[in-house]
Amino acid sequence: MARRAPSGRVLAAAPAPSRRLARRVLVLFTLSLSCSYLCYNLLCCCGGSAAPRARCPPVRAAAAKKLLQQSRPCGRAAPAEPPAPPAGSAPGAARPGTKRLPRAIVVGVKKGGTRAVLEFIRVHPDVRALGTEPHFFDRNYHRGLEWYRSLMPRTLDSQITVEKTPSYFVTKEAPRRIFNMSRDTKLIVVVRNPVTRAISDYTQTLSKKPDIPTFEGLTFRNRSLGLVDTSWNAIRIGMYAVHLESWLQYFPLSQIHFVSGEKLITDPAGEMGKVQDFLGIKRVITDKHFYFNKTKGFPCLKKSESSGLPRCLGKSKGRTHVQIDPEVIEQLRDFYRPYNIKFYETVGQDFRWE
């Protein structure tokens, strides 16, 4: 209650003890917060009393707003930001597409032009192809389909997955195994004059094993009698009609497309047009995609928009064949003639190898 001074002025009542106590507590609490904040800044900026004294970098005015929005203690590295997603992808989405089992397989034949077919068809936006040969249906079948699937490139629903392993064509178990995976699988076989193919096969082997016997020595069991050694793989592969019988036990001819290795060189756009029709995709790969490389002796892809550079097959392609005695070549033509004729009749196509 207010009281009067002797002079007549009214004096304020002295604060109650409880109010003085509350003010002291408030002052102490404020001092405590200030000390805590100061200690926190010293520890963050200098890394603790044991760490060497570090000076915080000056903050530029232009970056002040950003630092306020995403503050972090000075002297510590900012967490790495995740890479930006590819253009057109949904925010936070993983790599687009799904790994699927192939809908089409280039099953043969070795040294026929399978690599060229694979590289050419990869230009198509609706095709994704495995670059390496997985050898699943001949060497790695025990690993299972999920292992096989894991090797495949990711594809969208509108795209076709393709792989190539030329040795499938001469592997007896391959037709049944592929059929068990999917009876709707489309098969591509690249064939070539079996005599030329055998010489090319031998040339490749000779480059890796220079000490192997001569071509003539490997070709014949008895050259004077004209007995060809069909156990030699280079000879056996060219007996196309024999190997085709195994495939026709599981797949109709309508699911097998035969590419001419010779026309693939002289008319790559024409042959690839037929491949695109067989796969049920639009004819995108045309003459404008190719040019003939005179040094290699076969067509190459013109520069693409993605790389800006022309693309030819590897150094091992276009290798000069070893010289073979013309009489040996003639004997091999006689040997392959009945197999070729049967092959023409079966597939309904004359490849004119005679």
TrEMBL record:
Q: What general EC class does the enzyme of this chain belong to?
A: transferase
Stretches assigned to coiled coil: none
Which Cys pairs does UniProt list as disulfide-bonded? 300-312
Q: Main site of residence?
A: membrane
Q: Cellular location of this protein? A: Endomembrane system; Golgi apparatus membrane
Stretches the record annotates as Disordered: 72-97
Q: Where is the Sulfotransferase domain?
A: 102-337
Gene Ontology cellular-component annotations: Golgi membrane
UniProt keyword list: Disulfide bond, Glycoprotein, Golgi apparatus, Membrane, Signal-anchor, Transferase, Transmembrane, Transmembrane helix
Q: Name one Pfam family in it.
A: Sulfotransfer_1
Spell out the protein name for this chain.
Sulfotransferase
Organism per entry = Pipra filicauda
Lineage of producing organism? Eukaryota, Metazoa, Chordata, Craniata, Vertebrata
What gene is it encoded by? HS3ST2
